[in-house]
Amino acid sequence: MQGSQSACPDNRPAGKAFGGIFPVKEAIESMSMREIQKLAPGYTVEIDAVDERLWGELLLQFDDANIYQTWPYGEVTRGRHGLCHVILKHNGSLAALAQVKIVKVPLLRAGIAYVLWGPIWRRVSAPENPDLFRQAIRALRNEFVCRRGLALRLFPVLFADGSSAFQTVLAEEGFAPVGEAIHKRTILMDLTQSLESLRDGMRPHWKRYLKVAEKNGLEIIEGSGTELIESFISIYKEMVSRKNFAEPNDIRDFLRIQAQLPEALKMKILLCKSGGEVCAGLICSAIGNSAVYLFGATSNAGLEKRGSYLLHWNLIKKLKQENCTVYNLNGINPVTNPGTYKFKSDLAGSNSKDLFYLGRFDSHAGAFSHFAVACGERLRALYRSLRELPRAARAAKLQSHAGS
Question: What residue ranges define each of the domains in the chain, with the CATH number in brackets?
Answer without folding.
Answer: 9-181+357-392 (3.40.630.30), 186-355 (3.40.630.30)
